[in-house]
């Protein structure tokens, strides 16, 4: 009788298009990805990675693409996401607001760090930061690490601005382009005089377009983007996800990394790796003063 009932339930679920595994899994792992370019394309790109995680972790994975950094921070805060792929500034915000913590840092070109740069056209006549006084500039997002906080810090360390209010006075106009490629293309196409963005944004241009651009200053090293989990996610799931992504560093599944923002691999990190970012974020007013 019990087996007959189980068969009837499975048959009904099949007719409804639901697998028994999905039905049994009441709490899927929910992952929020940041869409640096086309959100729809990102959803397609990460499907092979999602399939790998479902196979390895033995859980169903639900995922979505956030179009801005604040969306991922909020998703972790209100627990509509268990995992988020984000930059260091968004991480320290999520840590303070929701108790989220990092499990992995991204590796690019063999390094877990990168820099921000100020890009201009080679034919712009702009050769140094002072030349940008009274000019226009495109950043990425108000809570972007490499696309706002660190580029602004470049001008601060040069003694040209003290804070974001000074930035509004120093530049004729500040724009937030919404993405790295949008920002550098705004400078390439003469919509703005400069772009303050991460160093790898340059690679989003075609080779002939790169030849038209140069950078005139760069920031100190920034910890790479990270994989963050929400407070309260069970340790076994967090550890399993960490190991599953670390396993992509080498071996037969290495090619899946190209679908994860084309990273070179991952390295284990903790909150300690982001203490300097946290300090700078507090200094700039992003975080509450303790």
Give a summary of the structure in a few sentences:
With about 290 residues, the protein is an alpha/beta fold. About 40% of the residues lie in helices and about 20% in strands.
Shape: globular
- The number of distinct β-strands equals 13
* Average residue-wise pLDDT: 90
| CATH homology-level superfamily of the largest domain | Periplasmic binding protein-like II
According to CATH, what is the class of the largest domain?
Alpha Beta
N-end to C-end Cα span: 63 Å
Radius of gyration: 22 Å
| CATH architecture type of the largest domain | 3-Layer(aba) Sandwich
The helix count comes to 12
Would you list the SSEs in sequence order as H and E? HHEHHEHEHEEEEHHEHEHEEEHEH
Low-confidence stretches: 1-25
Domain module tally? 2
Commentary on this structure:
The protein is an alpha/beta fold and about 290 residues long. It folds into two domains: about 1-110 and about 225-285, D-Maltodextrin-Binding Protein, domain 2, CATH 3.40.190; about 115-220, D-Maltodextrin-Binding Protein, domain 2. The chain has twelve helices and 13 strands. The strands form three sheets. The protein has a six-stranded mixed beta sheet, with helices on both faces. The chain has a five-stranded mixed beta sheet with strand order 8-7-9-6-10. A two-stranded antiparallel ribbon has the order 5-11. Helix 5 (about 70-75) runs parallel beside helix 6. The longest helix has 14 residues, at about 1-15.
